[in-house]
Amino acid sequence: MKETSHYTYVFLIGIGGIGMSALARYFNQKGLKVSGYDRTESTLTKTLIEEGIDVVYSEAVNDQIQNLSKEKTLVIYTPAISKTSKFFDFFKTQGFQMHKRSEVLGHITKHLPTLAVAGTHGKTTTSAILVHILKASGVQLTAFCGGILQNYNTNYIGDGEEVVVVEADEFDRSFLRLHPTAAVINSMDADHLDIYGTSQMLIDTFQEFSRLVPKGHLYAKSGLDVEAQFIAINEDADVRVGSVSIEEGTYIFDFHSGEHHLEALRFSLPGHHNLFNAAAALALAIDFKPEMANQFGKALASFEGVQRRFNYIYKSDDLVVIDDYAHHPQEIDAVYQAISEMHPEKKSVVIFQPHLFSRTQDFAEDFAKSLAQFEEVNLLDIYPAREEPIEGVTSDFLMHLIQHSSKQLITKSEIQERIARAKNEVVVMLGAGDIGVEAIKISKYLHETI
Fold this sequence. Notes:
By secondary structure, the chain is α/β, with parallel strands linked by helices. 34% of the residues lie in helices and 26% in strands. It has helices at 18-29, 43-50, 63-66, 86-93, 101-109, 123-136, 193-196, 199-210, 272-288, 293-299, 329-342, 357-362, 364-371, 395-401, 415-420, 435-449, and strands at 9-13, 33-37, 54-56, 73-77, 97-100, 114-118, 141-149, 154-158, 163-168, 182-185, 218-221, 229-233, 239-247, 250-257, 260-267, 311-315, 319-324, 347-352, 376-379, 407-409, 425-430.
């Protein structure tokens, strides 16, 4: 790939994706002309347009596209792109310079200090916490995030190049293109088996990623099969969280890492998984600038969260509604642990939209066990994303595996009715598909009518 300064125009196929839109914002800030295509309009694409980025929703190859310079145009595409994409076919046939998002990220970060957050769960929250504590402490950073940070209402930070923060995405082995100076691996649970085939192949690839990190600068959850400094809660480890208590919905804890001992830190995101994410972010920040450890620790208290990561969209004495991106059994377990800890007196209700036919098939039994923990289970149709249907793999198939007396299939149009009759309940809306759009509608409805 040529230096980015060589290009004057950038076109992104799949610009509305959370990772792709961050790259669009990066190039827009650098002064390049940026445009792109996405299948559907969204809040994010509307915001990009407001920022001066052109977005089209039709794959009609117009005169503007046909007149682009092959030499001066960089075409970036997401690996999740449809094989029938007309834009992809056009740019490839015409000989444009085309690169996957991961290649471009690898190129941008190649010569800059880079903190990478890896793992099948927790990447977005951990990287968001890391971005916040660095930025709040005055570090001039560039960051590409996989979610919208509540503190800054964006997924891209472009303050400077002291350090770059990236999510090291295992999908399509993308993270092997990065050049991390320090990294953390939060988890290596089986996922993306449509790409890897077996869980061992996934682990092997994480181990390959770990070898890209300079010795002594890799951190990982205790028990993972990599050579790293291990992180744990209330256990002996290289990086340890201890003396954990809860005060008015906020965690208070001590943090120990080498010579750094920070006491009575405050962090408001619920769930032990988020407490671990905070410790992982703190470890990476201190690795980068150990002399600022105390500032980083204090900055945790002002972190407001990430959209669609345990977001309270409504909260009253009688009803709590939470929106979360959880789309894997382990993530559903983590959400259940958090609501059980924070709202033990309320009935737990889940509305779950399975994501991908292949993932539903691969983890059907585990999904069934995770969902059965809730006192009531509601299933939406499977969100297909990039996939074609698999015969016999439906939400009805999954529902029959759930050992539960209170379970049902519902449609999106029935969500409001179900939540409207809730009494003393905590309702969690889970999934990586368009259930997030429904959560926005529910939030508006509840705040306007109740």
